[in-house]
């Protein structure tokens, strides 16, 4: 009996796992697909919940002065009101050595647009201490690339933090957060506000003068972000808007404002490529002529729609031809409304070439010279490989940030991409916009903070965000005269990424240095000074032969 009892105990101990599960574990058996998914999830590279920081040292010389700095590549953990982590935002910061918590040294937060773009474009090409060398509007040669110290860095004026939007670069949602929690006008601005507040708290920058620097859709983000930060107790000293689009309402099909917005950019592009019959000496002259025509006869003609007389239509078409280089016949057949893709294809039709979108100084060749639209954007193709390769090498081997996660070139590449364009406007007690216009938010921030300075920087040859559209958006903020003097415009002979043109980069650095000095002096003064009159005047551009 003792032997039989021991045998029973031994049998129970060695009973197959499946039999034990049936007896005591009520969990259902997993099939192979579930096991494989669990293993794949465990092996997936995820963003860290705990904040990372990899630091390295560098130095750059600006105007003969050596500036040693600390570069930090790391993550900021965004949390909800209960403290639960919701996202990890990747950043790269450059701080002048000797900067301590509580410093009054300025700090600027940079970001690109998209929406859904990471910030390696501004990081690699503009005002960081290291920069990819670029030249005239031509294809950047394959590797090795010319990347090194940037004598036009803004480090002499401000510390810098380059932030990647959630879902882009190395930034990711955490835990059970969904992409929709961040993929939207207001959701995106909220994430950036939390990240900036987190950085300011972690590194003791609440008492530093603070600036935003956004490019493209990043300018729309800046309008909402400036208001959100101010509403949360963080008043800004300044906002830089580079290549702006702050009002998406004008881009709805069937509205005529977009054609008005583009006309001066068409004129500038036709001037550059020598397509004007009576070409002025400089681009600023033809741009001003196009501005006056756009808000006068052209606006009136479009407003009449199909009821325009044949005589007025022909008169407007002839003047448009003189400004854009397109034939009157083509303009009449287009109902005086020329979409961007058609202009890119039609301007140089006789040469079988097309012009770029991000920068219309670039020219490309399509396989179908008779097509309606360019097959790609030559101005993007010419630079993308160099920027992507340079960032990946720099982040890994110089900044020392190593991860198994891929650096997403766009949040649109990931699952779950759908952007919520609705926006809660602060105008007149609120109200939701279906197509966002955050110039309204920026205006509210400027009215609430009379010391807030705004600098709008524009490229003559930017066909992605035309400068006349920016002038229209910012010109309808309904600011009082005392507030209007806090708004400054500058223009450069370049495209969307104005800093690609080395000549423009030099001028941009000069303009930014003066503007930072003015913004800081305003904060220390009882009466904000009036910006120099020359800063608001279009600068004379430079073109090239076709």
TrEMBL record:
<dbReference type="InterPro" id="IPR001563">
    <property type="entry name" value="Peptidase_S10"/>
</dbReference>
<feature type="region of interest" description="Disordered">
    <location>
        <begin position="17"/>
        <end position="55"/>
    </location>
</feature>
<keyword id="KW-0732">Signal</keyword>
<protein>
    <submittedName>
        <fullName>Peptidase S10</fullName>
    </submittedName>
</protein>
<feature type="signal peptide">
    <location>
        <begin position="1"/>
        <end position="19"/>
    </location>
</feature>
<dbReference type="Pfam" id="PF00450">
    <property type="entry name" value="Peptidase_S10"/>
</dbReference>
<dbReference type="GO" id="GO:0004185">
    <property type="term" value="F:serine-type carboxypeptidase activity"/>
</dbReference>
<dbReference type="GO" id="GO:0006508">
    <property type="term" value="P:proteolysis"/>
</dbReference>
<dbReference type="InterPro" id="IPR029058">
    <property type="entry name" value="AB_hydrolase_fold"/>
</dbReference>
<feature type="region of interest" description="Disordered">
    <location>
        <begin position="523"/>
        <end position="546"/>
    </location>
</feature>
């Amino acid at each position: 009996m003792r032997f039989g009892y021991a045998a029973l105990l031994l049998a129970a101990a060695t009973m197959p796992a499946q039999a034990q599960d049936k007896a005591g574990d009520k969990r259902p058996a997993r099939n192979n697909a579930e096991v494989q998914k669990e293993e794949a999830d465990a092996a997936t590279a995820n963003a860290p919940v705990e904040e990372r920081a990899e630091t390295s040292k560098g130095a750059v010389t600006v105007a003969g002065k050596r500036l040693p700095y600390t570069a930090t590549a790391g993550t900021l953990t965004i949390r909800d009101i209960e403290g639960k982590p919701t996202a990890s935002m990747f950043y790269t910061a450059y701080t002048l050595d000797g900067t301590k918590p509580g410093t009054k040294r300025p700090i600027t937060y940079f970001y690109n647009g998209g929406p859904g773009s990471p910030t390696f474009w501004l990081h690699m090409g503009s005002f960081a201490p290291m920069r990819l060398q670029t030249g005239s509007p031509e294809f950047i040669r394959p590797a090795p690339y010319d990347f090194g110290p940037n004598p036009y860095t803004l480090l002499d004026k401000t510390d810098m933090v380059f932030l990647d939007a959630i879902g882009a670069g190395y930034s990711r949602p955490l835990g059970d957060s969904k992409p929709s929690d961040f993929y939207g006008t207001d959701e995106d601005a909220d994430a950036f506000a939390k990240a900036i507040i987190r950085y300011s708290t972690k590194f003791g920058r609440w008492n530093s003068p603070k600036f935003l620097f956004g490019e493209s859709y990043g300018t729309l983000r800046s309008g909402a972000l400036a208001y959100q930060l101010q509403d949360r107790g963080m008043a800004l000293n300044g906002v830089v808007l580079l290549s702006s689009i702050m009002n998406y309402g004008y881009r709805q099909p069937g509205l005529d404002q977009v054609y008005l917005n583009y006309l001066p950019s068409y004129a500038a592009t036709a001037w550059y490529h020598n397509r004007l019959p009576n070409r002025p000496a400089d681009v600023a002259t033809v741009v001003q002529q196009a501005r006056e025509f756009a808000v006068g006869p052209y606006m009136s003609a479009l407003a009449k729609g199909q009821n325009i007389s044949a005589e007025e239509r022909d008169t407007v078409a002839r003047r448009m031809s003189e400004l854009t280089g397109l034939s009157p016949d083509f303009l009449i057949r287009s109902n005086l409304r020329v979409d961007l893709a058609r202009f890119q294809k039609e301007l140089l039709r006789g040469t079988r070439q097309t012009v770029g979108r991000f920068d219309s100084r670039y020219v490309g060749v399509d396989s179908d010279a008779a097509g309606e639209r360019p097959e790609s954007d030559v101005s993007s193709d010419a630079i993308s490989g160099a920027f992507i390769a340079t960032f990946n090498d720099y982040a890994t081997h110089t900044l020392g940030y190593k991860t198994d996660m891929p650096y997403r070139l766009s949040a649109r590449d990931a699952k779950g991409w759908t952007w919520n364009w609705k926006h809660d406007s602060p105008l007149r007690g609120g109200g939701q916009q279906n197509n966002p216009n955050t110039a309204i938010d920026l205006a509210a921030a400027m009215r609430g903070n009379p010391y807030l300075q705004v600098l709008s920087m524009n490229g003559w040859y930017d066909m992605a965000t035309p400068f006349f559209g920016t002038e229209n958006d910012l010109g309808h903020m309904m600011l009082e005269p005392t507030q209007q003097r806090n708004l400054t415009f500058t223009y450069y002979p370049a495209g969307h990424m104005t800093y690609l043109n080395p000549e423009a980069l030099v001028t941009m650095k000069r303009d930014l240095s003066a503007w930072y000095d003015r913004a800081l002096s305003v904060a220390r003064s009882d009466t904000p000074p009036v910006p120099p009159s020359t800063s608001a005047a279009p600068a004379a551009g430079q073109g090239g032969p076709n």
